[in-house]
Amino acid sequence: QMQFVESGGDLVQPGRSVRLHCTIFGYGVDSANFGIGWWRQAPGKEREGIACINNDGTTYYSDSVKGRFTIYRNGALNALNLEMNNLKPEDTAVYYCGADGFSSCPVPISATWGRGTQVTVSS
Description:
Number of helices: 0
Low-confidence stretches: none
Number of strands: 10
Order of helices and strands: EEEEEEEEEE
Largest sheet: 6 strands, mixed
Radius of gyration: 13 Å
Strand content: 35-45%
Mean pLDDT: 92
Shape: globular
């Protein structure tokens, strides 16, 4: 079973940048022939998928983050980053990475969830 570990969350002012990290452990990671994505969940809201990357490098972004966020692999199939620029207060959420082990992007839902990492955007 895959396990996801997220880190890099921070408290920042609007307009600033944050880089999140995700490390994946478990079955199928070496081949990684499926999409790996980032989701976020704001207080009182449902978890939403915001970015995803396939093993061929193609990416997917939600309209809410397109042009501001960039997902990319961190030198290995089991590690990836989410570069978040021009952050807005509405980006405040707990951020999770995940995959279901077979779907290409956009991945509907992750098979398992890590603890996530908190990003707070506030002046």
